[in-house]
Amino acid sequence: MRKKTMTKVQFAEAIKGLNVSAQTLEIAHGVLVQGKSQAHFAQELQLTAGAISQAVGRVWAAFEEKTAVASGYERVTAILPAHQAFIVKKWAQASKKPES
Fold first, then answer.
1. Is 54 in contact with 60 (CB distance < 8 Å)?
2. In 1-100, where does DSSP find H-type helix?
3. What is the pLDDT of residues 5-64, one digit of tens each?
4. Could you write out the DSSP letters of every residue in 55-76?
5. Phi and psi at residue 38, in whole multiples of 5°?
6. Residue 92 above 90 pLDDT?
7. Angle (deg, nearest 10), helices 38-45 and 49-66
8. For residues 14 and 59, is the Cβ–Cβ distance under 8 A?
9. Between residues 1 and 7, which one has the greater pLDDT?
10. Helices 8-15 and 22-32, packing angle to 10 deg
11. Cα(2)–Cα(81) distance, rounded to whole angstroms?
12. Phi–psi pair at 40, nearest 5 degrees
């Protein structure tokens, strides 16, 4: 199982419009961005493991929802020569256009 992580920028995007407490954000940021363990927060804040998991899960679910990719598509990251990058960007734009 892959460890759930995200960058500061991804975290900021994930929590936009998310209605959660400051403590939930602190816990989720610590676990998802800083790589601290959930057990660390359970001990530090004297909360149950379930409460910590739920806090992290709420932010992770928001992140997944905002970064979801439609069926039949795949998100890729690549470093390409400028002329190839131009072509790939055109393909990306074309894939966003609604089908007629």
1. no
2. 8-15, 22-32, 38-45, 49-66, 82-96
3. 999 999 999 999 999 999 999 999 999 999 999 999 999 999 999 999 999 999 999 999
4. HHHHHHHHHHHHT---TT----
5. -65, -35
6. no
7. 130
8. yes
9. 7
10. 150
11. 31
12. -55, -50
Look at 10 and 1; give whichever has higher pLDDT.
Answer: 10
Question: Which residue in this structure is represented by tokens 């379930």?
Answer: 50
Assigned token pair, 64: 């997944």
* Closest residue by Cα to residue 56 from 68, 41, 71: 41
Residue type, 57: G
Q: Is 56 exposed, middle or buried (0-12, 13-18, 19+ CB in 10 A)?
A: buried
94 token code pair: 């074309």
